[in-house]
Amino acid sequence: NVYKDIVIITTMDSCSSIIAGCITFGILGNLAFKTGAADVASVVKGGAGLAFISYPDAIAKFEFIPQAFAVLFFLMLFVLGIGSTVGMGSCIVRVIRDRWVRAPNWALALSLAVLGFSVSIVYMTPGGQFVLNLVDFYGVSFTALILAIGELLAVGWVYGVKRFCADIEFMIGLKTGIYWRICWGLITPGLMLAVLIYTLIDLKPLTYKNVDYPHIAHVFGWCLSAIGLLQIPGWALYSICKQSKSAGLLNKLKAAAAPANTWGPLEQTMHEEYANQRRKFELQAKQRTNLQSAYDNLFG
Fold it and tell me: Would you place residue 123 in the very low, low, confident or very high pLDDT band (cuts 50, 70, 90)?
């Protein structure tokens, strides 16, 4: 039951985040009070320092078995790291498997683990935190936001919220409420765009321990950002070039933005049923104007 799993996972994740935030800032507030600091920010070491310096230092001041809490805290960090690695690794393996179906899961997972371990060795060197801060700034912050906004727009307005909800109903037999349709189509992309704009406005030159990064480091960082950001226009151009050479540019764009003919369930009977539903959906879409299609995408 995918629906039940989603509700449980998202609820537990949200509750865990709230609890972790309350505990972390409660302890840091107490630490600031005991040290006489006027601001919590003055006692917090940003980045990895919060998890490996500030928080353990606060735990060491516990009067009741601080050793047990320290073990539990670092065990939690270990489990969190494993969980994050499995989640991100599974996404990469799944994408590769969608393209090359016969590729064995274990070989892909092993190759990805070896590659990730080899690349991350640099973070264990004396200058590892310096490199980690650089990669986090250029490779994750605004880059991830731009990619996420692009993904939301692609699913919500290129593939279509209506078609996405129809796929969900086809798979689990449940209709998607208007709340989720509006969130996926308008609210979530709008909020993420607002966060991106604020991030870019508030962007400050990158430093580490009040030391400016050299010019070559910024060049490397922008190259890292470019690799991530160029994925969207790069693969879009690749998809357009794959279309029939005799078709016009507009037809190429439409064909590139449409799902492949093989898109759908692997089981033959279900695939035929899904294909019939898709043809009916496309026929209805051709009979609407652009404004009607936009309204129907959210409320239809």
Answer: confident
Cα–Cα distance measured from residue 276 to residue 273, given in angstroms and rounded to the nearest whole number: 5
Predicted confidence (pLDDT) per residue in 255-274, tens digit: 888 887 778 887 888 888 88
CA 256 – CA 110 distance, rounded (Å): 33
Residue 93: closest CA among 75, 78, 113, 79: 113
Domain ranges for the chain, please list them.
Answer: 127-300
Q: Which of 25-29, 50-54, 105-109, 133-137 has the lowest mean pLDDT?
A: 50-54
14 is in an annotated binding site: no
80 marked as part of a ligand binding site? yes
Are 55 and 73 contacting, i.e. CB atoms less than 8 angstroms apart? yes
Give the pair of three-digit tokens for residue 130: 């310096």
Q: How far apart are the first and last CA of the chain?
A: 26
Q: How far is CA 171 from CA 6, 164, 196, in A?
A: 14, 11, 34
Closest CA to 151 of 69, 63, 91: 91
- Model-wide pTM > 0.85: no
**Tokens describing residue 64:** 């009741």
Q: Which phi and psi (to 5°) does residue 287 adopt?
A: -90, 0
Q: Compute CA distances 281 → 116, 143, 159, 166, 255, whole Å.
A: 42, 34, 12, 9, 16
Q: How many residues does the chain have?
A: 300
Q: Give me the helix-helix angle, 142-153 and 188-201, nearest 10°.
A: 160
Amino acid in the structure at residue 38: A
